[in-house]
Amino acid sequence: MPPLQLQLGEAERALLTTLTKQLVALLAAEEAPQGDVDDPLAALVGSLNLEDPQSNSTPSSLPEDAVLARLLPNGYRDDDEAAADFRRFTESDLRRSKANSAHRVLQDLATGRDPIALDDAAVPAWLGCLNDLRLGLGTRIGITEENLDELSQVSESDPRFAMLQVYDWLTYLQGSLVELLLPEE
Fold first, then answer.
1. Please, are residues 60 and 87 in contact by the beta-carbon 8 Å criterion?
2. What confidence tens digit (pLDDT) does each residue in 18-69 have?
3. Whose CA is closest to 132, among 33, 9, 16, 8?
4. Which of 45 and 118 is assigned the larger pLDDT?
5. 63: preceding bond cis by omega (within 30 degrees)
6. How many structural domains does the chain have?
7. Are the C-beta atoms of residues 88 and 59 closer than 8 Å to each other?
8. Residue range 142-164: average pLDDT?
């Protein structure tokens, strides 16, 4: 498939760059230390102390920040111990994967090319990053399935209005990319 062409104006590029940099900073800010990198197993899964799970160097609980909790959810809703184990073994890789996608978006934005050509390797990174930005922004604004219709009607004087506009634009951008990937009928 030929590369997808993404046309963004200067203001759109600047906004997307700012949001993506904030996402990268958020993902890196609370990342746990990786333990003893001289031990290949510890480097792969983190340093684990089976006698005292709380002393492990990898995270085992849901992040306190609501956006991080949304981006890095528990793997098990009804089993705290299983959720902690799952998080301990997967969170670092999930953070890294999300950050890598965001870095790819930043790299593509920084080229200055207009339009931006998204090859097969870039498309999943862009879709993932846009989804993470939407989830994060939606969490900060307080969007839920129950209040989405209400929030779509807020007035311009509402402090959330501008962020809701950005949320809608990110939704449009992500949806447009998905539509381009769908086979033609």
1. yes
2. 999 999 999 997 554 444 444 444 454 444 444 444 444 457 788 999 999 9
3. 16
4. 118
5. no
6. 1
7. yes
8. 91
Distances from the Cα of 121 to the Cα of 42, 133, 147, angstroms: 30, 19, 36
pTM over 0.70: yes
Paired strand residues for 118: 4
Whose structure tokens read 């086979």? 183
Cα 29 to Cα 35, 71, 111: the distances in Å are 17, 14, 26
Per-residue pLDDT for 107 more than 50? yes
Q: Which residues pair with 117 in a beta bridge?
A: 5
- Domain range for 115 is 4-181
What is the CA 115 to chain-centroid distance, rounded? 24
